[in-house]
Structures are given as C-alpha cells and as structure tokens.
Amino acid sequence: MLQKIILAIAIFVVILIALTFGEVIFHDAFAWLSYMTGRLIENFSDLFYQAQLYLSEHRIKVAVALLLTVPITLWIARSKGDELKKPTNQRKVAIVLAFFLGWLGAHRFYLGQIGWGILYLIIFWLFTPLAVVLGLIDALRYLLMADDAFMPTRP
Description:
mainly alpha
C-alpha cells in the first residue's frame, strides 16, 4: 500500500513539474534549481508557506496534475502491480524517486529504509542543498548499480 501511495506522489510531482516547466523550460528549470538550492528553508512553516503560495498561483496546473495522477496511478497499479515488486523494477522506481523526490528521502521510504528517510528529512530541514545533492547522488548510484547488487530491504 505504501508503495502505491509513494508511486502516486511521484507521478503527481512529475506531472506537476512537467506542467510547470512546459511553459518556458530553461527559465523555469533554472529558477527552480535556484529556488531549491539558493533559498534556504528555515523550518517546515516556510515550506508550507511556499507550497501554499505555489498552490494559490498555480491552481489550474495543480488540478490538472491531480486529474492526470489518479487514472495513471490506477492504471499502473492494476496493470503493472506484480511487476513493480521485482527487484529490477524496484530499482527503476527508486531511481525516479531519488531523482525527483530524493531531497525528501522518498526513495529511502519506498525501499523500506525508514531511518534513512527520516535522516533525509532532517538534512532537508537543516540544509536543503545538501539534501538535494544526496538525492541526486543516490539516483546516480542506483542507476550505475548492477541488478544483483541492488538489494531492497522491503519484501
């Protein structure tokens, strides 16, 4: 169940990013990277404020992303549910999660590494750029790792 929830969140974020960056890709991408690494979030209330500000400015994008997320997630869960449990596919999902949501430790939570996931959240809270870099490092590490070397802790 947790795997499907994390998959839904990842799909939502990817769709939302695609809709956001679709307008002016390079400008928005560099602005987002600058925002993520240049503007430190002091505490979780700042994060909620920024999310609320984004939601108020981009209501239509969020609604479209939500409307697209539900059917895509249901389709993937129904048609590919058993395949997602294979270690090879778990690695692919972990790579995508580490790339897009690695700064929140989503890939670690997905793999059942709850302690590491919490550590990523703490690092994100204390020093956001480090959390972003660590997530990208994990994505690259999973990408270059052999299938037999990738051992998820979850059953």
